[in-house]
Amino acid sequence: xxxxxxxxxxxxxxxxxxxxxxxxxxxxxxxxxxxxxxxxxxxxxxxxxxxxxxxxxxxxxxxxxxxxxxxxxxxxxxxxxxxxxxxxxxxxxxxxxxxxxxxxxxxxxxxxxxxxxxxxxxxxxxxxxxxxxxxxxxxxxxxxxxxxxxxxxxxxxxxxxxxxxxxxxxxxxxxxxxxxxxxxxxxxxxxxxxxxxxxxxxxxxxxxxxxxxxxxxxxxxxxxxxxxxxxxxxxxxxxxxxxxxxxxxxxxxxxxx
Length: 257
Description:
Radius of gyration: 19 Å
Strand order of the largest sheet: 3-4-2-1-5-6
């Protein structure tokens, strides 16, 4: 896929999995003389914009990095405010998700979350379980390396014989619902805030993801920016290790150069 697909043709056709590292909330606030918590509140509005725009961009799965396992090292007051905002987002958005046919899941560890937040996660996952138009996954207390390690150490002997089987095992501890969807590989990974690294996010699932780094701070990210990112995705040529148009008689299985 290396051509731009008009936005009017994107809805429910492409079935893209887009993952976003939502970076830059604190810097956005500081540049405006505000507390970092104000940036996180503005970031919640950006989440709403992107979730609403995603289906019309051909996105059927959206994974958002909200809080990494390393973020526990941040100041206690900031962590407390973040958790409070996450709980408020889950509570306030439930009906919006139901009305739009979207499903909300949370991935990552839950044993270190407050009981009230765990209860809110359980409630919203159950309430939105019938959503089919879009699956939104919020990564909270998430580490890709820890998830891979946990899956590897609990590997059932003789039961995992393919990458797909391992991917299911990798995802299985991350959602309390019994009907959590099989997680597709990430097609497009976006990071805002000007940084260019993965920060322990979706390492297994992003093996062949197209990467897009934006200088926009996350609170500045809008629906048009998501559409532009998807259009950029379609301008790129994805070969997955193969050649685009191999010459007749060329040996198969050779890597691209």
